[in-house]
Amino acid sequence: MSELLAMLNAKPGNYQAMPAGGVPDITPEMVSAACCGLTRHVYLYALYKFAGQEDVLRELWALNRAAVKRRAILQKWNIQLQHLCCVGDLADSVLAEALTENRCLLCKGAGVNDRMKRCPACQGSGNGKRWSARKRARNIGISHTTFRNTWAVRYADCFREFGYFDKIIDQEIRYQLFSG
Ligand SMILES: [Zn+2]
Predict the structure, then answer these.
(1) Which of 102, 142, 138 lies closest to 6, judged by CA?
(2) What is d(CA 164, CA 124) in angstroms, rounded to the nearest whole number?
(3) How far apart are the CA of 88 and the centre of ligand 1, in A?
(4) How many domains does the chain have?
(5) Domain that holds residue 59
(6) Tag placement on the chain: N or C end, fewer CB within 10 Å?
């Protein structure tokens, strides 16, 4: 996650709390305006995660399940019958993990220390540790071994998509902030 988004994420509802040195105030309205041209999946994710709009969660959840199912079909995931329901559970777990506050313990998600130097623990990302393979497996309702052998790659693939979302959202907000 970028430092800008780490700041947004670090202090939800307090968009004034930006680093010293000239980042303008970021409001939920600005996040919404900056991201409205993105796909609805990304847009709703931005609204929920960075503009605090919790009422979009149901639609975001449904869109995300549909996206992961589409991915499973396109990538021809080989799924045993008893694991069919895992696709939806994987989608839910990935979304929950992407939305969960994931702050670095040292810098509390800011990415910088008191003197505005890059945080050494997270290299400025503000990110803490990701969920463990065991937790991910538990969420999907499969054994750790099955997860490791078959589902871990799929999970990582889906999760990476949200990293990409963060990047586009960051770009759009920067563009909104610093252009014109
Ligand atoms: Zn840190």
Answers:
(1) 102
(2) 17
(3) 32
(4) 1
(5) 3-178
(6) C
